Amino acid sequence: xxxxxxxxxxxxxxxxxxxxxxxxxxxxxxxxxxxxxxxxxxxxxxxxxxxxxxxxxxxxxxxxxxxxxxxxxxxxxxxxxxxxxxxxxxxxxxxxxxxxxxxxxxxxxxxxxxxxxxxxxxxxxxxxxxxxxxxxxxxxxxxxxxxxxxxxxxxxxxxxxxxxxxxxxxxxxxxxxxxxxxxxxxxxxxxxxxxxxxxxxxxxxxxxxxxxxxxxxxxxxxxxxxxxxxxxxxxxxxxxxxxxxxxxxxxxxxxxxxxxxxxxxxxxxxxxxxxxxxxxxxxxxxxxxxxxxxxxxxxxxxxxxxxxxxxxxxxxxxxxxxxxxxxxxxxxxxxxxxxxxxxxxxxxxxxxxxxxxxxxxxxxxxxxxxxxxxxxxxxxxxxxxxxxx
Length: 389
Known about the structure:
Elements: E1 2-10, E2 13-18, E3 24-29, H1 35-60, E4 89-96, E5 99-106, E6 109-111, E7 122-129, H2 136-141, H3 153-168, E8 171-174, E9 179-184, E10 192-197, E11 205-206, H4 212-230, H5 233-247, E12 264-272, H6 280-295, E13 303-310, H7 313-325, H8 329-332, E14 343-349, E15 352-355, E16 357-359, E17 366-368, H9 375-386
Helix pairs in contact: 3-4, 4-6, 6-7
């Protein structure tokens, strides 16, 4: 399966085109450059494509009345609705088995009236991990008292995924910090998340009292681990399809031509700023951990994709290490390596994208061009040197 997207005149995005959304896609750029906006648009179009697939599945199974009305503007959340103009255009295409299926938004209208044959049906699960995830530990401990309060759509999506993850995960390794998180549940009380050292050391501490780096990264790692292994596509499919048919009393008319177990299964995790509150070495270790979970330890019945928005040059430079590890047998055994065809890194600047992928002139290996990512340190040094009495 291959995905592509074109976004024009959407908020800060003027003209964005990605011909092939890779399993690991990274956006780096200044604050407010549009990194998160790109991710949110991709996640939205993927969600719509998921619903189109479900609609096609039902139609192919003789359920002719569509259960889903897809209204684009009603799906825009947390300020995205204010970014739409009369000039906004979005084209999202999935190519599978040499066939292309395109969803488009133009002239203030969503065009999603496509039917997908059984041979090309897939089942998507979208997860968005918001930069506001640092609130999760406190929110989880007081969720009953805070019922009805809102921190925005994307925070609640993140929290719900973390809550689902910790229904399944009872102990999560946080190897990048030499720690682990234990999930404790007693009766109707909120879950308790305890952080413990992997070595003998300090007493366990609640996640909400742990350091800010632990609070932001532990939920992220748990979510990725859950979707790599614990998430049930069967249950998700039942919620999406069978519950609707049951409520509409139409199960007797349902004659599926393909089993849900035969559908291609994809999980897409969109991550805002994985580096939050972590020192450079911990950032490197975290990225290695996420890539290991998503691409090396994931269940064989699904394919995972990560999209990351970051400010961190440490993360992007470390990806070069994992990319180069893929070229050598010995390092492939010791690193969560990346395949050269599975990664793309883009700089977001002035509403457009520039690919940072290149070929090393000496080795002819695929690399990420990080040449100018030390510019700030050089400017600081030059300013220091220029000081005079």
